[in-house]
Amino acid sequence: MSYQHILVPVDDSPISYAAVEHAEEIAKAFSAQVTIMSVVAIDPFVGVDFYKVAPSITEYVFEAEKNAENRLNEIKQTLENHGLQVNTKIIREVPTAIGISTVADEINADLIVMGSHGRSGFKKFVLGSVAQEVLSESRLPVLIVKQ
C-alpha cells in the first residue's frame, strides 16, 4: 500500500496538530503530497431572526476564516520546511464532515488523517463526532488520532 495524497482536516485544537504530525511522518515515508484543510461553518443555531444577527454572523465568519487561513499557512510553512509538498484549502458554509468528504474527492486523496476529541456518552450525543461521521461515510482509509 502506498499513499500519494493525504488529507488532514484541522481546527484549532491540539489534537489537530497531533494529526498533522502523524500525517507528516506518513507523507515522508511515502513521498506523498499533503493537503491541510479547515471548514468554516455558520452555527446552525444562530439566526432565528437573521436580519438582527447578520452583522455578528458576518464578523464571526470573517474572524473564523482569518484564523483558519493563518493556522493553515503556519502548518503549511512548517511542513514545507520539512521537505513536503503542501496545499491548503478552506471550505465554507457546509457541515464539517461533508466538507472533508468533498475535499477528499476533489483532490483525489487516498488517506485522511484527522484528530478526534474522544468524546463519549452524552457529550458525543449532544456535540456529535465529526471523526465518527467521516470514518463511517468515507470510502478512503481514515486514520484517527486520539488525545
The tally of domains stands at 1
Shape: globular
Share in helix = 40-55%
**Average of pLDDT:** 84
Helix and strand sequence? EHEHEHEHHE
Number of DSSP helical runs: 5
CATH homologous superfamily assignment = HUPs
Class from helix and strand fractions: alpha/beta
Uncertain spans = 45-49
- The third-level CATH topology is Rossmann fold
E-strand count: 5
- CATH architecture designation: 3-Layer(aba) Sandwich
List key phrases describing it.
single chain, 147 residues, alpha/beta, Rossmann fold, 5-stranded parallel β-sheet, 21% strand, globular, cytoplasm, UspA
Summarize the structure.
This protein has 147 residues and is an alpha/beta fold.
Descriptive notes:
With 147 residues, this protein is an alpha/beta fold. It has a single domain (5-146), classed as Rossmann fold (3-Layer(aba) Sandwich), CATH 3.40.50. It contains 5 helices and 5 strands. The chain has helices spanning 14-30, 50-81, 96-107, 121-127, 130-137; strands at 5-9, 33-40, 86-92, 111-116, 142-146. The chain has a 5-stranded parallel β-sheet with strand order 3-2-1-4-5, sandwiched between helices. Strand 2, helix 2 (50-81) and strand 3 (86-92) form a beta-alpha-beta unit. Helix 3 (96-107) packs across helix 5. The chain is globular and about 45 Å long. The relative contact order is 0.22. The model is unreliable at 45-49 (pLDDT under 50).
